[in-house]
Amino acid sequence: MTQPQRPDLTKDVAPTSASPGPSGSARSVLASDAERETMVERLREATAEGRLTLEELAERSEAAYLARTREELASVGEDLPHVTAPATAGSGQRSFRALFGDLVHHSPALEHGIEATAVLGDLTLDLCSSPAPPTGELTIEAKALVGDVHLLLPEGVRVEMNCSKVFGDLRDLTRAHSGPESVTPRIRVNGSAVFGDIIVAHPSSDRRSYWQKWLDERRGRA
């Protein structure tokens, strides 16, 4: 008697696909708005600890907004610790005065705002490398009395000017930032210009932010 042929138990089994490794599609998962907000909050915590400058906070917040994938978003804060320490209290508002002469100051502390006064002289404050204020916002009280107040700010900040003028001028020469307000450092400039000017501008170089170029290069290598 002929024995029935045993079925081939393997020929109809579909091969199992390997799980994606570090270089597979898992690295291309798109980041959500909630994940971007979480990264921005992490940046603000690091700012409160004094780990980031005002320029770095602006650039990294912009990078978090521009990041398309989780991998890109994680890279924005990969050099920051996961555990944050409470912010230390700083001193009061810092005052800078150019009286009957010119004064240039780089990287002043910004914890509680700045008072900038120019009387018969020019005051220039370069804030690009200053440690960012813990809240991500800064208020500057500016007074230009027969003199000029020049404020140099990094790319990526949002400027609000609420100043009066009497035979003076108010000029905001910063470039508009396209990111949402919730992730953009804010600079408020209050004060008055009397026979003088209050000028807010970026440094002379007209460039894209470091993080925008970094993301473009990274995507080009993908």
From TrEMBL:
<feature type="compositionally biased region" description="Low complexity">
    <location>
        <begin position="14"/>
        <end position="28"/>
    </location>
</feature>
<dbReference type="Pfam" id="PF08044">
    <property type="entry name" value="DUF1707"/>
</dbReference>
<feature type="domain" description="DUF1707">
    <location>
        <begin position="30"/>
        <end position="81"/>
    </location>
</feature>
<feature type="region of interest" description="Disordered">
    <location>
        <begin position="1"/>
        <end position="36"/>
    </location>
</feature>
<dbReference type="InterPro" id="IPR012551">
    <property type="entry name" value="DUF1707_SHOCT-like"/>
</dbReference>
<protein>
    <submittedName>
        <fullName>DUF1707 domain-containing protein</fullName>
    </submittedName>
</protein>
